[in-house]
Design brief:
The chain has 474 residues and is an alpha+beta fold. The chain is 21% helix and 34% strand. A hairpin with a 6-residue loop joins strand 5 and strand 6. The longest helix has 32 residues.
């Protein structure tokens, strides 16, 4: 009897589930009939595409942004009679759905009074015209124009009132905490570092350097009363508000990108020749009362100047160990989309950065000390609307940085040794000795130089530095 009752209940449940699935399948065509899939393009007065323009339906159900070519595809419900189109620097317009179906291009007129857009305070966005305090902002598209592994390099000079100082100006990427930031200058009343907020949550100042410009919607700097009023005593030194990108209602959008950039020093140091160096050393000894030719004889100076004898070289150690140009490659993919109930945005990127130190290829070496940096970065933002009263979100971001240091030395250790090596020094290796192999190709050193650069780079092993950051919000 019990088994019979259970079978009857299972049969009823199966029938109910089958009926429910049939109803869902029947509902799909009816939904399709209520929407029209319209693709349009937004351009300016010169017929150039406008990227990042915002399109909203009148009922607020759909919100989209235009792609690089200015196009967008928006399912427009028949009940929605109008849409709104807005873009920074252009006049906002309101057009009918009928016009959207008939015209493939929507033209926006330039508006010099609409340059500010919205400013994000971390927990709410305000129109710039309604803010009385001092606020500066910049979009992620502008930041992405500067190729750099460190975020501070991208917004330096683009946010009035924010001073960014790189305390170690080397073409090396060990130590992202070497950037100091201040609002209203270092001589301001407080002189403290500003508060940093990422998507409404306070974050460590050092963490922001790992964020990719591709992930950023905007960066705002709140100064004076605007920061104090919003964040209290924590905002007394100003606030840097970073808003990352989020998904929009619309079809799945996948964007892949790859780029390569070059970096070089703004100025390379100029060194004296071996003959000039020898004369200056003799002059220093003479002024110390040691005599005329205390360091180098006139014959040695003549040999340095002639350049015919390899035992009297004219070395420029900086050019031998520092590259002229450093390469950087970046690849990544963005995925975004969603519905009125669920929106998502995800970014995954990888950066490979060479370092400027030149490594010599030695055949007997069993390891590769070539210094470089590899950075993997990801971010996922998801927003869920359960009903008109309850909504939720999840923010998940992280990065892994792997850096190889030749010999385990930091950049400034090697730079200082380059400047300590005199141009008159023979080397970097001793000549081949056919009678004694142990004396062949040994690292040459001189008095006062216990650690030559060649040995630091090529015969001291290497060190791997791995740094991982994970940030989650719900």
């Amino acid at each position: 009897m019990v088994i019979s009752i259970m079978l009857n209940k299972m049969e009823k449940n199966i029938k109910f589930i089958a009926l429910y699935i049939i109803c869902l399948l029947m509902a799909v065509p009816s939904y399709t009939q209520e929407t029209n899939d319209a693709q349009n393009r937004i351009v300016n007065e010169f017929n150039q595409p406008i990227q990042g323009a915002i399109i909203k339906t009148e009922d607020g159900k759909y919100t989209l942004r235009t792609a690089k070519d200015g196009t967008f595809r928006l399912p427009v419900e028949l009940k929605s009679k109008f849409i709104q189109v807005s873009a920074t620097g252009y006049q906002n317009i309101r057009i009918s759905v009928e016009q959207l179906m008939d015209e493939k291009e929507i033209k926006l007129s330039f508006d010099p009074h609409n340059m500010g857009g919205e400013v994000n305070f971390g927990y709410h966005s305000y129109n710039k015209e309604s803010i009385t305090g001092a606020v500066s902002s910049v979009s992620g598209e502008v930041l992405d124009k500067t190729p750099s592994n460190v975020l501070s390099d991208t917004y330096e000079g683009r946010l009035p009132g924010l001073t960014v100082i790189n305390n170690i100006a080397e073409l090396t990427f060990f130590g992202y905490g070497n950037y100091s930031k201040s609002i209203r200058g270092n001589s301001s009343i407080n002189g403290n570092s500003p508060l940093v907020m990422i998507d409404g949550v306070i974050a460590p100042t050092q963490y922001i350097e790992f964020i990719s410009p591709k992930e950023i919607e905007s960066i705002s700097v709140l100064k004076d009363a605007s920061a104090t009023a919003a964040f209290g005593i924590q905002g007394s030194a100003g606030v840097i508000v970073i808003t990352t990108k989020r998904g929009y209602e619309g079809k799945l959008k996948v964007e892949a990108y790859a780029d390569q950039s070059f970096q070089q020093m703004t100025r390379r140091p100029q060194f004296v020749s071996s003959a000039q160096y020898a004369r200056l050393r003799n002059e220093a000894g003479e002024r110390d009362g040691l005599g005329t030719y205390t360091q180098f004889s006139q014959e040695e100076i003549d040999l340095f100047e002639a350049g015919n004898d390899p035992r009297y070289p004219n070395n420029n150690w900086f050019d031998q160990y520092i590259k002229q140009v450093v390469l950087r490659q970046r690849v990544g993919v963005n995925v975004s989309g969603g519905t009125d109930k669920f929106r998502y945005y995800s970014n995954l990127s990888f950066i490979h950065q060479d370092e400027p130190l030149i490594i010599t290829d030695e055949p007997n070496r069993k390891y590769d000390p070539t210094p470089n940096v590899n950075i993997g970065n990801f971010r996922t933002n998801m927003d869920v609307k359960f009903n008109d009263y309850i909504s939720g979100y999840m923010r998940l971001a992280g990065n892994v940085k792997r850096e190889i240091l030749a010999g385990g030395y930091l950049g400034w250790d090697i730079y200082s040794q380059i400047f300590n090596q005199p141009p008159t020094m023979y080397g970097p290796l001793s000549p081949i000795n056919e009678n004694d192999a142990e004396l062949s190709e040994q690292v040459v050193t001189v008095d006062g130089l216990d650690n030559p650069v060649y040995g630091m780079l090529n015969r001291s092993g290497y060190r791997t530095v791995i740094e991982t950051n994970i940030l989650a919000q719900t």
